TrEMBL record:
Pfam families associated with the record: HhH-GPD (PF00730), NUDIX_4 (PF14815)
Protein's job: Adenine glycosylase active on G-A mispairs. MutY also corrects error-prone DNA synthesis past GO lesions which are due to the oxidatively damaged form of guanine: 7,8-dihydro-8-oxoguanine (8-oxo-dGTP).
Protein name, UniProt field: Adenine DNA glycosylase
The organism's taxonomic lineage, starting at the top: Bacteria, Pseudomonadati, Pseudomonadota, Alphaproteobacteria, Hyphomicrobiales
Species: Pelagibacterium flavum
Keyword Iron (UniProt): yes
CC cofactor: [4Fe-4S] cluster
Amino acid sequence: MAQTASMQHSEISAIDADAVLDWYDRHARDLPWRVSPADRARGVKPNPYFVWLSEIMLQQTTIAAVRKYFAAFTRLWPTVQDLAAAPLDDVLVQWAGLGYYARARNLHACATAVVVHHGGVFPTTAAALRDLPGIGDYTSSAIAAICHDERVAVVDGNVDRVIARYLALSKPVREEKPLVRATVQNAVPGRAGDFAQAMMDLGATICAPRRANCLLCPLEPDCRGTKTGNPVAFPVPPAKAEKPRRHGHAFVIRHPDGKVFLRQRGPKGMLAKMTETPGSAWGDVESVVSLPFSGDWRAVGEVNHTFTHFHLTLTVWSITADNPLDEGWWAEETMLDSEALPSLFRKVLKTAGIR
Ligand code: SF4
């Protein structure tokens, strides 16, 4: 396949930003946090709170999954001031299911910082935005470009893929980040926000992970990937490191009156402060179960779950008993939706026949 990794910038076909914007003007996706290119041209400004919230939610999650969370958050907390004033526990409950809970805590910390240090107004430059909790290079660039047309490169996973194909990179994208970034940066036009969103949309709809609809693509005339005849061979995948598997036990204690015993996880580490069913520590090897108290425990199944860095298998044990453990609470089954239960523990409860 294709080009050398030592491709010089002078060899790179520049991206035709006008063609990209022309395509975006006709095909921009309609998203609840987005101002359409037509409205943008009429002077309508994007709401930085909405853009920030959507970008944080979209990290490693799809738009389809984010829509309902975005709707719920903006209904409960229409402004950054409202979100900052909300109890963290309420934010965690609403976030449950989106994963990456450190992000929810940072979300709340960031809203607080915007209110306390910036009078409730998000900073307008990427550099200033980067000082806020949970806002890194990508998110700061996205907000500054989309809301204020700062001419910065906005490179998410979709854009990585588009550029890897456009340049027919022979190495994995993560080894060619500076080149990808420079290629985008060199192209950023005055309509920086629309261009950023256009490139994201191209990656999401035309130059998609498993298919490339090159005939509809504004980058087609200069795209090296399409000229190879097999553009989806790019980006070249990185060598895969095998994810380790961890093991543990989960204990579902059902009160005779139907309530379920839950507790809060510790303040540090995985899923910190979220709600869980009691359970063992997670280890690298399967351990003999140490049940929290004696009784008629039954092994009711296994739950498999994948985190970013490891797979987890939990053996689920269930009992009907009224023994509470030291710390925790009895939760009504009908109220489980309002508990900050991550998907892992919802799976555990389901395996025990609860909801
Ligand atoms: S021409 Fe094809 S491979 Fe190249 S960027 Fe467009 S959709 Fe992707």
